[in-house]
Every structure is written in structure tokens, then in C-alpha cells.
Amino acid sequence: MMDNLSSATEFCLLGFPGSQELHYILFAIFFFFYSVTLLGNMVIIIIVCVDKRLQSPMYFFLGNLSLLEILVTTTIVPLMLWGLLLPGKQTISLNGCIAQLFLYLALGTTEFAVLGAMAVDRYVAVCNPLRYSVIMNSRTCIWVVMVSWMFGFLSEIWPVYATFQFTFCKSNLLDHFYCDRGQLLKLSCNETFLTEFILFIMAIFIIVGSLIPTIVSYTYIISTILKIPSASGRKKAFSTCASHFTFVVIGYGTCLFLYVKPKQTQAAEYNRVASLLVSVVTPFLNPFIFTLRNDKVKEALRDGVKRCCLLLRD
């Protein structure tokens, strides 16, 4: 517990409730998820870089998305695993808390921007195929990704700064497995209503703002696909968008529930479940979504495995 006249200089993350046996089981599950996330997304990045068949805007964006998934989950999961393995040792300094929250939010915002760019890319590919190579040239793709990263990191400077301007004097016990903003605000002795409202407006702008081009793009895409006369043509056109669309539904659905709410200080159980979906489950699913539903990626993976087997034989 803390002195009511001072602010916390470090936080103790309470993590998950339950017995130590349950913590060991959760450690095994989340360690498996984290390992597969790192391996799967790294494989996607490597094959996108080395396979000439995947040298296109769609896979360039996919490589960036996989990199973001690795970074997002690495920002959260190692500390969470440490807390599950060694209960009572999951402490984080104030500066570490600031860095973790900033990186988590900035990388997440960048991911939304990249997903919006991927939706526009699919729109051009399906609705304007003859102009695709002209519109989505390499310079445009690099510029879009650079702007996405800059937007993600610059847009989260004020929200994180505003969060840590409060005095956290109620306690230094944070009822979460990472430095969650909502749980931090619960520890503040200051009035947080105005800041929470501004953060709510910013969340709407960032999440819903990046969702609008996705909705508009897929409205045109579906309309165009339905006009294709042959069933095989419709199936082929939709298969180029299915992976991205699936990921959008999972990613946006979770974050809308987690961040687009006027009151940031939700129940800890609610935040834990939603945060697990964002930081553990979605990055874990990303390689499966984009490999199991994409013939080119599966073909590139098969060829890569064959080449590795031949090298090992030699």
C-alpha cells in the first residue's frame, strides 16, 4: 500500500487470480501461444522478403502487420509470463510502465492504420485491377507504411502523457497483467472524468476512423464481386480478401469493446479478457489466418520447406 500523500514510483502487477497450479497451467498455455506467435509471424516476414511470388503490395503490408504483431505481443507477454512463473515478483517501475503503455498503444494504433491501408489495397486490386500496379506502386506502399508508423507513435504521445500526469496515491497495486490505462486511472486521487472523455473521443477517431475506409472498401469490393458472372470468378476474387477481412473482424471487434467506451476504468476481469484477446490470441491467430486462407503463402511455405529439406540432406 502507498502513502496517500505521494505518487507511485513503481507498480505491483497482480496478474491473474487463482492458485499457483493454475498459474503454471496459464504459463504453459501463454508460453505456447507466444512461441507460436513469434515463429509464425517471423516465417511470414521471411517468406515475404525472400519469395519473388510475394513481392506485391498485399504481402508487403502483411509483412508489416506480422512485425507489428510480434512487437505488440512482446511488449506485454514476457512480463506476464514472469509474473505467472514467479508470483509476487511482477513489479514494474513508473518509467517502465510509461514505456510499456506507450509502446502497446502506439503499435496498436499503427496496426489499425496498416489494416486500413490493406483494405484500400484490396479495393484497388478488385475494383481497379488494370490500374493496380500504377496506383499501388512500391513508392506509394513505402510512404503509406511510414505514415502509418509515424501516425501510430505521434498520436499516442498526449494520451500517455495525460495518463501519467495524475497522482497515483491510492495504491501501487495494479489489478492487471500489464500497465493498463483504465486500471492506472483507478489508482488516481485526481478527477479523471475530462481526461477519460478526451481519451474516448481519441479512441473513436483512431479506431472508427481507420475502420471507415475498411467498411467503404469492402462495400465496393463485395458489390464488384457480386457482379462477376461466374461462381469460380467470384470465389477467386473473394479469396484475395478473405484473410484480411477475417483479421479485421477479430481485431476491430475486440478493440471496440476494450477502448471505445466513455469510462476507461472498467472491471479488471473485463479488461483482462479483452486485453488477452488483443495481445495474445489475435497475434497468435494472425499466421494461421493468412496462411490457411491464402494459396500463394501456402505454396511459398511448401517450397521453402522443400528447399530446407534438400539443404539438410546435402
TrEMBL record:
<feature type="domain" description="G-protein coupled receptors family 1 profile">
    <location>
        <begin position="40"/>
        <end position="290"/>
    </location>
</feature>
<keyword id="KW-0472">Membrane</keyword>
<feature type="transmembrane region" description="Helical">
    <location>
        <begin position="101"/>
        <end position="120"/>
    </location>
</feature>
<dbReference type="GO" id="GO:0004930">
    <property type="term" value="F:G protein-coupled receptor activity"/>
</dbReference>
<dbReference type="Pfam" id="PF13853">
    <property type="entry name" value="7tm_4"/>
</dbReference>
<keyword id="KW-0812">Transmembrane</keyword>
<dbReference type="GO" id="GO:0016020">
    <property type="term" value="C:membrane"/>
</dbReference>
<keyword id="KW-1003">Cell membrane</keyword>
<feature type="transmembrane region" description="Helical">
    <location>
        <begin position="272"/>
        <end position="292"/>
    </location>
</feature>
<feature type="transmembrane region" description="Helical">
    <location>
        <begin position="197"/>
        <end position="221"/>
    </location>
</feature>
<feature type="transmembrane region" description="Helical">
    <location>
        <begin position="141"/>
        <end position="161"/>
    </location>
</feature>
<dbReference type="InterPro" id="IPR017452">
    <property type="entry name" value="GPCR_Rhodpsn_7TM"/>
</dbReference>
<keyword id="KW-1133">Transmembrane helix</keyword>
<dbReference type="InterPro" id="IPR047132">
    <property type="entry name" value="Olfact_rcpt_6C-like"/>
</dbReference>
<dbReference type="InterPro" id="IPR000725">
    <property type="entry name" value="Olfact_rcpt"/>
</dbReference>
<keyword id="KW-0552">Olfaction</keyword>
<protein>
    <recommendedName>
        <fullName>Olfactory receptor</fullName>
    </recommendedName>
</protein>
<dbReference type="GO" id="GO:0007186">
    <property type="term" value="P:G protein-coupled receptor signaling pathway"/>
</dbReference>
<feature type="transmembrane region" description="Helical">
    <location>
        <begin position="242"/>
        <end position="260"/>
    </location>
</feature>
<dbReference type="GO" id="GO:0005886">
    <property type="term" value="C:plasma membrane"/>
</dbReference>
<keyword id="KW-0716">Sensory transduction</keyword>
<dbReference type="GO" id="GO:0004984">
    <property type="term" value="F:olfactory receptor activity"/>
</dbReference>
<keyword id="KW-0297">G-protein coupled receptor</keyword>
<feature type="transmembrane region" description="Helical">
    <location>
        <begin position="59"/>
        <end position="81"/>
    </location>
</feature>
<dbReference type="InterPro" id="IPR000276">
    <property type="entry name" value="GPCR_Rhodpsn"/>
</dbReference>
<keyword id="KW-0675">Receptor</keyword>
<comment type="similarity">
    <text>Belongs to the G-protein coupled receptor 1 family.</text>
</comment>
<comment type="function">
    <text>Possible taste receptor.</text>
</comment>
<feature type="transmembrane region" description="Helical">
    <location>
        <begin position="24"/>
        <end position="47"/>
    </location>
</feature>
<dbReference type="GO" id="GO:0007608">
    <property type="term" value="P:sensory perception of smell"/>
</dbReference>
<keyword id="KW-0807">Transducer</keyword>
